[in-house]
Amino acid sequence: MTTFHALYGHQPDGEWAAPGRVNLIGEHTDYNLGFVLPIALAQTVRVQARRRTDGRLRVYSAQGDGSVTELTAEELAAGDVTGWARYPAAVVRALAAAGHRVGGADLLFDSDVPTGAGLSSSAALECAVAIAYNDLHDLGLGEQELALLCQLAENRYVGVPCGMMDQMASMCCRAGAALYLDTQDLAVRQVPFDLAGAGLRLLVIDTRVKHDLGDGAYAQLRAGCERAAGLLGLPALREVPLTGLDEALTRLPAELRPLVRHVVTENDRVQQAVTLLDAGDPAALGPILTAGHASLRDDFRVSCAETDLAVAAAVAAGALGARMTGGGFGGSVIALVAADTADAVAGSVTEAFRAAGHAEPVIHHAEPADGARKLS
Ligand code: ADP
Ligand code: MG
């Protein structure tokens, strides 16, 4: 790999890292102002960075096309950027649009967060830029402010209508804990999640498929949820308590009922999961994960053959529970397993994929890791 000096002719001022994430439970709840429970992964996007005073942004990624993209301050403000460089450009633009005095920077990225696997490499990339800029240009912003600016950058300047979970997870997670986040008031709590201490492992099964129903489907689901909240006279579906679900469903057209059922029961599953983790019983999360998957598959309808197969094969092989994680239509599945069964479960999933004629899944295991940080 090339070096910072070889690219830019000087040494970096420092190096920063921001992780990918998996969400334990709480899917499609963030834009309904509900609850989520992600952990950060050990896999990170790392950025070496040097401050510039002329407002230019130069970016290079070891996972990119081998060239440096250079943008003047005017080009950044105009947002005339294509390819992966629009992610860092969007963050700089969002910082500037929020009134922060950002100058330029030279950036070199390297990453082991798989892209497009539902592990949020895009948020990791954004958060790495934000934390580096915060330090390089003395912006003095807190991690939540940075996370929200990254979300805004992805929404407004990349054009992906994501909720805030991914960026909040990448910025705010801590090793050994899951991040319990109320997306309405942004209250966060670190909930101890000691996998190793409980003799557990969390497998992350990258199905390596991404069915391109993509952003259109996401926007439609989101609009359906918002329409349902409007029909119920509520600002968001988070206001529907589990005890009021049946009554709420009677007031909605048939096509919206499954969406609402998913969101309301999913918010409840997050609460259940937090209660179990607080009680020091992470193994009991298993059935909640599997129930969450059934809800995504049958009510929200964002799973696909590969994610359903990974869940079914993992559970059949003895996983305590499993679910797809991320927006859906492919991506990754998590499976909670007893440590001594991890290899057998992984082997069974791989075998089931082979038998079904799917590409071989890539299986990692996750330990709750730290959020974005300065490395050197
Ligand atoms: P996910 O966030 O689930 O990984 P996305 O489609 O939201 O999937 O984001 C993936 C995109 O983010 C890539 O197509 C690329 O444009 C950008 N990206 C992520 N990591 C890197 C990297 N290390 N170098 C360059 N671009 C990256
Ligand atoms: Mg993404």
Summary keywords:
376 residues; alpha+beta; Ribosomal Protein S5, domain 2; Alpha-Beta Plaits; 2 domains; 6-stranded mixed sheet; 4-stranded antiparallel sheet; 40% helix; globular; binds adenosine-5'-diphosphate; binds magnesium ion
Topology:
Layout: H1 4-8, E1 14-23, E2 35-36, E3 38-52, E4 57-61, E5 69-71, H2 73-78, H3 86-97, E6 104-111, H4 121-136, H5 143-158, H6 165-172, E7 177-182, E8 188-192, E9 200-210, H7 214-231, H8 245-250, H9 257-278, H10 286-300, H11 305-316, E10 321-325, E11 330-338, H12 342-356, E12 362-366, E13 373-374
Parallel strand pairs: 4-6
Antiparallel strand pairs: 1-3, 1-13, 2-7, 3-6, 4-5, 7-8, 9-11, 9-12, 10-11
The chain binds adenosine-5'-diphosphate (ADP) and magnesium ion.
Uncertain residue ranges: none
How many whole angstroms does the radius of gyration measure?
21 Å
Q: Portion of residues in helices? A: 40-55%
Mean pLDDT: 96
End-to-end Cα distance, whole Å, is 19 Å
Task: Provide the spatial order of strands within the biggest beta sheet.
Answer: 5-4-6-3-1-13
Shape: globular
CATH class of the largest domain: Alpha Beta
The overall number of domains is 2
Bound molecule types: adenosine-5'-diphosphate, magnesium ion
Structural class by secondary-structure content: alpha+beta
